[in-house]
């Protein structure tokens, strides 16, 4: 099985667990003399089965991610790098938006507000980070489709 397939299955299992949680809550209480729409014991048994499957799958995904190398880095390291690039880009874009926004003055006596950074230079850095993020994400996608699950 390819890593991408395992990731898809993990997402499906997580979605099913969320739905099962709702079904359990919906059947936790009933009016006296009524029966629940679904038997909680059967739902709890299904919960155990899904959690067991998810635990096994997550362990295999984590093992695969931590032992598969690409360009001298494990998939785990590439994921961490992608996540930090994404976070840095988000913060830098917010800062750039703030630094590049104009403050209107209604008269020459009002205080003039200027940017504290070179906006054009910062925009080039953001563009370079965006490119690095795209390339990292593409590499991860490629690895997901070419790597066998361990």
Architecture blueprint of SSEs:
Elements: H1 3-26, H2 40-67, E1 69-70, E2 73-74, H3 75-100, H4 119-146
Antiparallel strand pairs: 1-2
Helix pairs in contact: 1-2, 1-4, 3-4
How would you describe the overall organization of this protein?
There is one protein chain. The protein has 150 residues and is an all-alpha fold. It has 2 domains: 1-67; 70-150. Helix content is 71%, strand content 3%. It contains 4 helices and 2 strands; from the N terminus they run H-H-E-E-H-H. The protein has helices spanning 3-26, 40-67, 75-100, 119-146; strands at 69-70, 73-74. The protein has a two-stranded antiparallel ribbon with strand order 1-2. Helix 1 packs antiparallel against helix 2 (40-67) and helix 1 crosses helix 4 (119-146). The longest helix has 28 residues, at 40-67. It starts with a helix and ends with a helix. The model has no long low-confidence stretch (mean pLDDT 94).
Task: List the main descriptive attributes of the protein structure presented here.
2 domains, 4 helices, single chain, mainly alpha, 150 residues, two-stranded antiparallel ribbon, flat
